[in-house]
Structure formats: C-alpha cells, structure tokens
Amino acid sequence: MSLENLYREIILDHYKHPRKRGTLEGPGVLAVELKNPSCGDRITLYVRREDDRLAAVRFVGEGCSISMSSASMMSALVEGKTADEAEALARAFFRLVQGEPLDPATEEALGDAVALQGVHQFPVRIKCATLAWKALERALAEGGAAAESPAGTPAP
C-alpha cells in the first residue's frame, strides 16, 4: 500500500468514525465557533481545562471530509495535553499543511494529523484542514467563549 493510500484511509476513517465528536457542558467549558466562509464548513470546539491541561476536547460541526477528519484528529491529539503542548502541535500542523518540512519527531508527535500533509498541494483546502486548529488556537488564546469566523465576522 502506498503512503498516499494509507493517508487517504486515515482521513476517511476519521471522517466516517470521528473521535471526540460531541459537546461538553458545565463550568469551565470554553466554546469556540468558527466557519469557513469560502466553503461553509462549520465547527464548534468545546474545551474543558483543568489546571493547565486540556482535560476534555469535543467538537460538533459539518463540512467536507478534510475539515471534519482534521477536527477529529486534532481533538484526539490534544486532549490531555498542556496548553503549551497543544499550541506547539497547532503551530507544527500549520507548518505541515503549508508544505514546510518537519523533523521526524515533530511529524510523529502530530500522529494521524500528518495524513493531511498533502493538503498544501490544494491551497483552497488548507482552510478546511486548519479550521478546527484555528478554533483550538482561539480557545487557548482567549481562555473564554468566542463566536467568530476566521475572517472576523460573527458566526450565525
């Protein structure tokens, strides 16, 4: 099996069987809603922090297979991590989907998300792949609820 086919299977598996899909409620839950205005992908990311750890991460949304599989991969990857670790993974993911080379240890740290490295060949799909990661970035930066699109317009 080629690496491209393996990556395709990983993406489809996360799309068909998303990890960490659902909502979180209760005190200390941050909710960030983002949409990709160019294609209509939407995500609401829920994060519960305990101390400096992302104790629980869930998402709901609708969109293409790239967007939803990326949300699944990200949620599973960052749950249990510290805020600093999650931020470092997000920065690495942004570099990956821009086509920048990563060292093997960083690729390994990204887990299944490395399957999205080919997205850089399709610039219009980069926004799909990064939507959930931008929601994570916003949740970590703001430390509170937010509801904006990447372009800064309120999400309906």
UniProtKB/TrEMBL annotation:
Domain NIF system FeS cluster assembly NifU N-terminal: 7-128
GO molecular function: iron ion binding; iron-sulfur cluster binding
GO process terms (BP): iron-sulfur cluster assembly
Pfam families with a match to the protein in the record: NifU_N
Organism superkingdom: Bacteria
PANTHER family: IRON-SULFUR CLUSTER ASSEMBLY ENZYME NIFU HOMOLOG
Similarity comment text for this entry: Belongs to the NifU family.
The protein, known as: Nitrogen fixation protein NifU
Native source species: Hydrogenibacillus schlegelii (Bacillus schlegelii)
